[in-house]
Amino acid sequence: MADDFSVKLTEKYYTPDPSYRQNSWIGDYQEAYDEFRKDPEAFWDRVARELHWFSPYAKVREWKYPYARWFVDGKTNITFNCLDRHVQNGLRNKVALIWKGEDDTERIYTYRQLLREVMRVANGLKTLGVEKGDRVCIYMPMVPEQIISMLACARIGAVHSVVFGGFGAAALNSRITGAEAKVVITADVTFRRGKSIPLKHIIEEAIINAPSVEHVVVLRREKTQPVEIHKEMEIDFYDLVHAAGTECEPEVMDAEDPLFILYTSGSTGTPKGIVHTCGGYMVGTYYTTKTVFDIKDNDVYWCTADPGWITGHSYVVYGPLSLGATIVITESPPDYPDPGAYWRMVEEFGVTILYTAPTAIRMFMKLGEQWPDKSNLSSLRILGSVGEPLNPEAFEWYYRVIGKNRCPVVDTWWQTETGMHMVTTMIGERMYPGFAGKSIPGVVADVVDKNGTPVAPGTGGFLAIRDPWPSMMRTVYKDDERYRKYWNTIPNWYAVGDLAVKNKEGYIMVLGRSDDLIVVAGHNIGTAEVESALVSHKAVAEAAVIGKPDEVKGNIIKAFVILRVGHTASDKLKNELLYHVRITLGPIAMPAEIDFVATLPKTRSGKIMRRVLKAKEMGMDPGDISTLDD
What is the pTM of this model? Predict the structure, then answer.
């Protein structure tokens, strides 16, 4: 593709009430940013000192391109900062977690109760032989035990690898074997739209050929017909917990010890195991949750993400709990039992900060204003967006219908790899619909050409990050070359893989991926992973997939399939392929459309030219096709 391109930009903006800036943690954005730029290490030192360290760090940052160490030799434990610190400082009876199930069941944990449950599960894991540095895979629905299990791992220094509960057996197996997980924590079922969806059989299939797994811990939720526990390897979650003690001292962790591995799709078939560490990740998520959302003591904060994704790690679990916030989670989809469900929860729990995805916003737009209008949304004071670009039309609807023209909208850009927010519009600053915003204080982001030179306003280029930040990933697990590629693609910059453009004021609009990833409902799906799943079917010789714009999900997956000799295209075969992808990768990776084709556009070296397929699909000029074979 070309190095740059021109983009027509809107100049429409909204200015929040001045009280938002006056009362925010960050205050004046430009003053805060200038302070950071004057002395970045002093800036981050001030943030880190707000947290608890068992032993102080000797140095804020050590940077040997492309490797960074943060809070060097400091000792801490993220669960102490998320739990013990608040219990000791007078918040023991403050509500930490509110969970609501599909059947209106509610469970509420104070900080004291949450700490006790975390310590019991941590002790239970210890009885299974889990030690500091061991990997634990968590494959669960969005229930309190999912969050408790994450914190329990962090409590004892085990490295958790959370896998989204919608993934199929093959995707789950690759993540279990990739991390060499010693223990898997799962549930028998998840409840979705009034139905019980089994999970345990997926685990049973996934741990075949996973020799590292020694135990499977099963949370049994079905009370009428409890699943059988196979005692050779399996143990009931609460049998394990009830046999454990209620006191578990936090493991003293070095700032650079690994905290978790989170697998994300890549442009090759193998998911990338992104490694985040204890100290820098803790500081980054604490700081951004506090300043981007401007969380205060009396806020009720609801991030609708699942902890199977990085947003759930950073802004459901670690960031809000490190601040002593009250968080809301639910297992229910946003439109069940009707499209007013989320808005009733906002009213019921007095939610003040709502952080959700553009896909959900566009779905609500489509369903009509009558649903949010049935609920009292006056408790809301800040709205957030995450996962993909928030298009101007969705921004306008969110701001007007949900925020009643008064709530600031913070459209956040960041990645699994960055661990924390990087670009947004800080509270109280002017908001441009369609633009995420500027670099947050603490980050240097810009739009550059392939040589790393910043481009002019209105000219498209590559979004990139200039300097290290505390919560940056440290490596790709067992594949450090893939980590180095992020820093070696554009000279002296961290290349994020997104195209972007900025306006005259420096606000950045993210335009989409520049590599072979498809963002579906805010989730990165690797083209190669879906293609591999299709080709593993006996009828398929070759496959290529592209992202096709969709007004609700942002993109859908469209597949182009060449069949093997002896197989004939049919609706029956199309359904077989969809089912095959569902079982292999999970429903999130299923193509919405499949075309059977005789050939695929390829370069002379055999690389499939997906952009040619996409251009033809969209009725656009495919551009330079001089390298196309035939």
Answer: 0.85
